[in-house]
């Protein structure tokens, strides 16, 4: 999330990170809630030494993977941008 959204967060609390990410508009409300629940679970493990069950760990993994997948830059947009940039120069990029 740090690299994807250009947020330097090593010294932020979870609440600070969520607040900053929230004002950037990168996530929709459902994603914000999912990220908050995921990070709170991580905090329990890190700071309270909570040992999650296998089911909880898998649920957290699925949540993280879903957030990553939903916020990936669109590869198709990158190809469209390259085509439109080269079109104006007379050099049409036909690679897919």
Structure in words:
The protein is mostly helical and 96 residues long. It has one domain (2-87). 67% of the residues lie in helices and 0% in strands. It has helices at residues 2-5, 14-24, 29-47, 54-70, 75-87. Helix 3 crosses helix 4 (54-70). The chain is globular. The model is unreliable at 86-94 (pLDDT under 50).
Compact description:
The chain is an all-alpha fold. The protein contains five helices and no strands. The chain has one domain (2-87).
- Percent in helix: 55-70%
Q: Helices and strands, in N-to-C order?
A: HHHHH
Please tally the β strands and state the result.
Answer: 0
Which structural class should the secondary elements be placed in? Answer: mainly alpha
Gyration radius, in Å: 19 Å
How would you classify the quaternary structure? Answer: single chain
Number of helical elements? 5
Count of distinct structural domains: 1
Low-confidence stretches: 86-94
Summary keywords:
0% strand, mainly alpha, disordered C terminus, single chain, 67% helix, 96 residues
Task: List the SSEs and their pairings.
Elements: H1 2-5, H2 14-24, H3 29-47, H4 54-70, H5 75-87
Helix pairs in contact: 2-3, 3-4
């Amino acid at each position: 999330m740090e690299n994807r959204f250009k947020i330097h967060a090593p010294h932020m609390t979870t609440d600070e990170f969520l607040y900053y990410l929230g004002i950037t508009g990168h996530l929709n409300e459902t994603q914000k809630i999912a990220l908050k629940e995921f990070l709170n679970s991580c905090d329990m493990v890190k700071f309270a030494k909570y040992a999650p069950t296998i089911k909880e760990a898998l649920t957290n993994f699925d949540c993280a993977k879903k957030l990553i997948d939903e916020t990936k830059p669109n590869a198709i947009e990158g190809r469209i941008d390259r085509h439109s940039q080269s079109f104006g120069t007379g050099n049409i990029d036909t690679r897919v």
